Amino acid sequence: MEHALQHMDAGLVVLDQDRCVVSLNAAAARILGRAAADLLGARLHDLHPPGSRAKVDLLLAAAHDPQAPATATSMTVALPGRIMVIKATGLAHGGAALTALMLFQIDRRRPAEPAPPADGGAAPLVKLPVTTRHGVTLLDPADAVYVQANGHYTTVHTADGAFFCALPLSELEARLDGRQFVRAHRGYLVNLRHARAIDRSDGRAAFVMATPGAPRVPVSRGRIDTLKKLLAL
Questions:
Q1: In whole angstroms, how far apart are CA 95 and each of 41, 98, 157?
Q2: Region 92-109 average pLDDT
Q3: Taking the alpha carbons of 225, 226, 230, 231 in that order, is the dihedral positive or negative?
């Protein structure tokens, strides 16, 4: 672990009170994949999709709360082939409340990581990591009613509400039980245990979920035949 840290880039981004980038180092620009000139002056919210901005707000609030747990000041972002870890901390500067973001990039396939399963697939997910105001919570996958894509991230919908998840939909599809979670649409995974019916009253197929409000999850035309076979319809 110590050897890995010695060879790891440490990106640093400083935000002003309006959450705009006022300074960053070269490592941060490399990790973010953007030119420094494009990042300077940018609002942090504008660098994230709308669905993940609530998580960013929680992260920045925790950075200035001395009682906040360490998990609340950290954020992981799953990207193709790598994971970005963000650590936030508050700075005092002439009466202004600045925020420093430390960025670390971790390759998904490092020698120290466990080997993948013998069949070459990704390791199954035993728990779903989601973010709440108290930090990261581990949900039982059975509690997920459906999962919705949100840019590079996802939103996990449960009977108790919707939660931000840093894992992309493609990874969740690969690592969740395929007998239970099916891709109904390019932007949705459905937990069949919570599916009550398939409705086509408006000419478009949709799963009707057996949770409060009976939410509807769209079914794309290209996946109807596969779902019919799976459900013996």
A1: 20, 9, 41
A2: 77
A3: negative
